[in-house]
């Protein structure tokens, strides 16, 4: 996955939110808890620990992260387009 412009992706707050939710959503859905119930670091840590010990949950997280990272507009393997690989910061749409 060296053909992904990680520097630009991690500087984009939308990508960061998408990545965090792609990890938390499958975990909270599997355990049937709401985000409001994760009101202490201890509870969050316990849920994450339980998730890491569960292969089914880990596979759900892996699929979700894949969907967050994959660019469906680029054919083939997981990568950014040649143009996107050259970006120094997230591109703004200019009209």
From TrEMBL:
Q: Which InterPro entries has this protein been placed in?
A: Phage-like_holin
- At the top level, the lineage of the source is Bacteria
What single Pfam family name could you report for this chain, choosing any that match?
Answer: Phage_holin_1
Write out the transmembrane intervals. 12-33
Could you list this entry's UniProt keywords, alphabetically sorted.
Membrane, Transmembrane, Transmembrane helix
Indicate what this protein is called per its UniProt record.
Answer: Holin, phage phi LC3 family
Species assigned in the record: Virgibacillus massiliensis
């Amino acid at each position: 996955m060296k053909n992904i412009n990680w520097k630009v992706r991690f500087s984009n707050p939308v990508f960061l939110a998408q990545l965090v939710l792609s990890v938390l959503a499958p975990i909270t859905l599997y355990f049937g808890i709401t985000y409001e119930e994760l009101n202490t670091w201890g509870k969050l840590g316990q849920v994450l620990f339980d998730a890491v010990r569960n292969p089914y949950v880990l596979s759900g997280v892996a699929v979700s992260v894949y969907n967050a990272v994959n660019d469906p507009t680029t054919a083939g393997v997981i990568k950014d387009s040649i143009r996107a690989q050259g970006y120094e910061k997230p591109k703004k749409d200019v009209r």
